[in-house]
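Design a sequence for this backbone.
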């Protein structure tokens, strides 16, 4: 009995510790993060099914995160969600033009698109790195008074954020273009983001990326099946004509 009580106390202490990071958050910010997380998960599930409704629901998530991440001064994450918002509009239009009923027509990534994607990664890493270089200036109300700039100000989380931001931008671009390989990039970037967001004190978002990783793995194989069905259908149509 005593052992059970000790175990329960440890579990409760762990739960309290998990949610202690929200002590400084207002109820409004906590509610908005929960809504953004929920809509984000629903959106990814719909993308896994190739359903175009993923985009309007995803727009709710990304726009909320732009606001939240600005409040928390996580500028790299804020910029990527602003990009998500723009790419969601593009993806919504592109999927609408290339669909069979409400399911997107899936394609594989070309060598040219991989080349472009590589340069997107490089350019994004450099750009976000510059933003973090001037982070002390931004956090000081855009004033150089009593601050110093330098790479020594970078934390490990900043470098990780630069990497995931670059990967997410390419994944979102390929997703909008209906390329199956975007799921592989999502899996890598989502897995990296789980401990990153927990470290940043965003528990709900960390849980969201855990779900994203699982969903991305399942969705990759789902898109492979859809692509196979599409290829069989296309080959059949070509044979009959």
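Sequence:
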């Amino acid at each position: 009995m005593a052992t059970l009580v000790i175990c329960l106390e440890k579990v409760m202490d762990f739960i309290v510790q998990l949610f202690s990071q929200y002590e400084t958050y207002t109820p409004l910010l906590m509610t908005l993060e929960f809504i953004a997380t929920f809509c984000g998960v629903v959106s990814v599930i719909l993308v896994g099914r190739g359903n175009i409704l993923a985009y309007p629901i995803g727009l709710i998530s990304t726009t909320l995160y732009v606001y939240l991440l600005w409040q928390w001064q996580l500028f790299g994450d804020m910029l990527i969600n602003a990009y998500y918002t723009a790419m969601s509009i593009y993806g919504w239009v592109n999927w609408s033009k290339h669909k069979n009923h409400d399911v997107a027509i899936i394609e594989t990534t070309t060598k040219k698109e991989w080349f472009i994607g590589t340069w997107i990664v490089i350019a994004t890493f450099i750009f976000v790195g510059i933003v973090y270089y001037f982070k002390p200036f931004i956090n000081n109300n855009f004033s150089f008074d009593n601050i110093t700039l330098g790479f020594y100000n970078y934390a490990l989380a900043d470098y990780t954020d630069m990497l995931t931001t670059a990967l997410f931008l390419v994944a979102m671009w390929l997703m909008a273009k209906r390329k199956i390989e975007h799921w592989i990039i999502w899996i890598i970037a989502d897995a990296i983001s789980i401990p990153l967001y927990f470290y940043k004190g965003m528990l709900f978002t960390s849980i969201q990326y855990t779900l994203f990783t699982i969903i991305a793995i399942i969705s990759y194989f789902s898109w492979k099946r859809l692509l196979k069905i599409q290829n069989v259908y296309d080959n059949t149509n070509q044979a009959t004509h």
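The chain has nine helices and two strands.
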